[in-house]
Design brief:
Bound molecules: heme C
Distance between the termini: 59 Å
Shape: elongated
Number of strands: 0
Strand content: under 5%
Number of helices: 9
Order of helices and strands: HHHHHHHHH
Length: 192
């Protein structure tokens, strides 16, 4: 009787030790992986958690002047955002609505006019980029009254646009989970 109890006891201790070791390996692994991924996201802007990513643009287009100081509505330029999955970057013809007259002495405006007249485009550098396996839909959100600022920050104060949130799955889910939002949580809503 006593012998068996002892055996059970040492077996239990063995398990405890194994699980402590397992936990150590697990946490250590998590730390190493988070360093690796942290380093990747720092040095390779592209897909992933590029919070605060703020690339230089070919022309220093300033939202704080256009949307802030002159209060041009976001939808005046991003005019597909209520109808489409994607929020378009405006065509140069939109810029020329004003810049045919405004600031025509600026070298940047000269560049825009030249591209417009030659029917070429300005290669804006993309700021936000979800991985391919995720689907996002602007019109669904904007039509439900989620404001641009909630997801993009105060763009009307930004001289150069940057990524305001981390665009992680947790960030999406956290908002979808709020009861008042009645937003879908099943995987296939966002992944196919
Ligand atoms: C006069 C036109 C104009 C107005 C008004 C405007 N934008 Fe933009 N927006 C642009 C252009 C051009 C770009 C591309 C260059 C850049 O990133 O700065 C852009 C880029 C962006 C981007 C980054 C897109 C990417 O590459 O991921 C966001 C986000 C954005 N705008 C949001 C807004 C919001 C929110 C408002 C209103 C507060 C607004 N914009 C008003 C012209 C405009
Ligand atoms: C619920 C969050 C959310 C709201 C609200 C939102 N956006 Fe976005 N926006 C995103 C995400 C996420 C991306 C990146 C999409 C991708 O990579 O496919 C993005 C990308 C963009 C882009 C780059 C082009 C594109 O479609 O990928 C522009 C421009 C933009 N948003 C403008 C706006 C404007 C203007 C508004 C308000 C009218 C707005 N967004 C509202 C989350 C949001
Ligand atoms: C509704 C009118 C309007 C539209 C549309 C517009 N802008 Fe402007 N833009 C202005 C005004 C006003 C200024 C400020 C002029 C000043 O500083 O006196 C300005 C200034 C600028 C400047 C700074 C020029 C300099 O050298 O100081 C750039 C660059 C510029 N806009 C680019 C663009 C681009 C690119 C687009 C299209 C995506 C665009 N603008 C669309 C009205 C507009
Ligand atoms: C600030 C709150 C908020 C955030 C952040 C948010 N969503 Fe949503 N989302 C909503 C709401 C509200 C709806 C419900 C729209 C409806 O009822 O049709 C929705 C609906 C959707 C839908 C369903 C669209 C359709 O066609 O019915 C998709 C897909 C989606 N969200 C993807 C995303 C992804 C991906 C992200 C993160 C990159 C995200 N959302 C971040 C609030 C949010
Ligand atoms: C509201 C939108 C949304 C829903 C619902 C959602 N996801 Fe995601 N998921 C995302 C976004 C955005 C990313 C990319 C950012 C990231 O990796 O956090 C992602 C990334 C992932 C990844 C890749 C992680 C990586 O490290 O590359 C997996 C796996 C995943 N999701 C599985 C799921 C599963 C399983 C479900 C259902 C239980 C689900 N997702 C529901 C938005 C969503």
């Amino acid at each position: 009787m006593q012998k068996r109890a002892m055996q059970g006891n040492s077996l239990l201790k063995g398990r405890l030790r194994a699980s402590a070791w397992g936990r150590f390996v697990f946490f250590f692994g998590v730390i190493v992986l988070s360093f690796v991924f942290g380093a990747c996201s720092k040095f390779q802007p592209g897909i992933g958690y590029n919070k605060n990513y703020q690339p230089d643009q070919p022309i220093p287009f300033d939202h704080s002047v256009h949307a802030g100081q002159y209060q041009i509505k976001c939808q005046y330029c991003h005019n597909q955002v209520e109808r489409s999955k994607h929020s378009n970057i405006p065509a140069l013809s939109t810029c020329m609505n004003c810049h045919i007259q405004v600031k025509t002495d600026s070298p940047f405006i000269a560049k825009i006019r030249e591209a417009y007249e030659k029917n070429t485009s300005i290669e804006w550098v993309r700021v936000h980029m979800l991985p391919d396996h995720v689907q996002f839909n602007h019109s669904a959100h904007v039509q439900k009254g989620v404001s641009c600022n909630t997801c993009h920050g105060a763009v009307d104060t930004m001289k150069t646009v940057y990524q305001f949130t981390d665009l992680s799955m947790g960030w999406c889910i956290n908002c979808h989970r709020q009861p008042e939002n009645k937003a879908p949580l099943n995987c296939t809503t966002c992944h196919q």
